[in-house]
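Everyone, describe these C-alpha cells:
***
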Amino acid sequence: MNTVQITAKRVLRATEKAAQVLLMDGRKSWFPYSQCPGLERIPIKGKGEFTCPTWLLAREKVERPNEMESKMIALEGTVIMRNDEAAFVKLDGGEEIWFPFTRCPELTKLPVHTKGFFECPSDILFKKGLMHYAMNLTSMIKDLRRGNLSIFQATHTQKIPALVLHCFAHDCAQRTLLQSYKDNKELHLSLWRATQIKRQWISGEASDEQLEQVRLEIRRLWVSAKGSFMRTVSAIWDATDKDAVTAANGAAQYVTFGILNASLSVSDLSRGVDRPEQDEMIQERSWQSNRLAELLEKYIEAERETPESVAR
C-alpha cells in the first residue's frame, strides 16, 4: 500500500476511532486512526504529521464514517445513587460512571440499589464518566494518580479552576524548557521570560498586554524553529494562552522528545505499541498527572482561605 506523509494544520475534533483534520490546503477530512499511524498522537487543536494511504487522501471529500457516530448500546449495572439529573451506576465490568437522564432515559425507572438494563450512547463511555469527575474532584485526583485519567479528560470536565490549569500549564512548559536546556546547553532568554511573565500574569502582577507581547516574541521564534526546539517553543506558546484549557492541554502535549497526546493516560500509554520513546512518554505523562493532582490537592486545602495560594 502506497502511503504519504502529510501535515495536519489542525485537528478539529476526534472520536474513538478517527479524527477530523484541517489539511494545509484548507480541506477538512476524516481520517481513521487504524490507517493513519501517528494521527492518534496529535491532540485536538494540535498540529503535526502523520502517515496516510494515498487512496484515502485522494478522495475528494472524506465524510465521517457511520461507524464513528455515537451508537446506543445496552448496558447492565446497579444504581448506587442518583439526583434530579443523573444516576451513578456501577456497571457489571466494575466501572462506576454518572449517566445523565437526558441521554439515558431508561435509568429514570431504576431505583437506587437496583440492578437492571438500560441503553446508553457510546460516547459517554468513551469519555469515561466525566460528569462523575466534574462532581467529585477527589475521585479525579485518585484516578490521575492511578494513571487512569488523561490530561484531556480531566481538563474538559469544566470543573477544575482556571487558576489550577494555568499553574499546571506553566509548570509543564517550564519543565520542557529546562529539559531543552539540559539537552542543548542553550537557554533562550525570551522563552524563559515568557514563562516568568505567565507566572506573574497568573498572580495578577502582569497585564494582558505584557502577556501578548511575549507571545509575539515566541511567534517570531516559532517561524524558524525545528525539531525538539520547535516543540519547546510550541509548549511555551500554548502555555501562555489566556484560555486555561487550551494552555493546559497544549503545554502537556509538547515535550522535547516528541508529541505526547493529551488524550492518552498513563494506562493508555502502557498498553500502546512499543516505541523507542515509550518509557519516556509514560514517565512524562506520569509526572504531569501527579502534578495536576498535586495542584488540585493544594487548591482544595487552600479553598477555605484564598485560592491564590495555589499559585505560590
Notes: The radius of gyration is 21 Å.
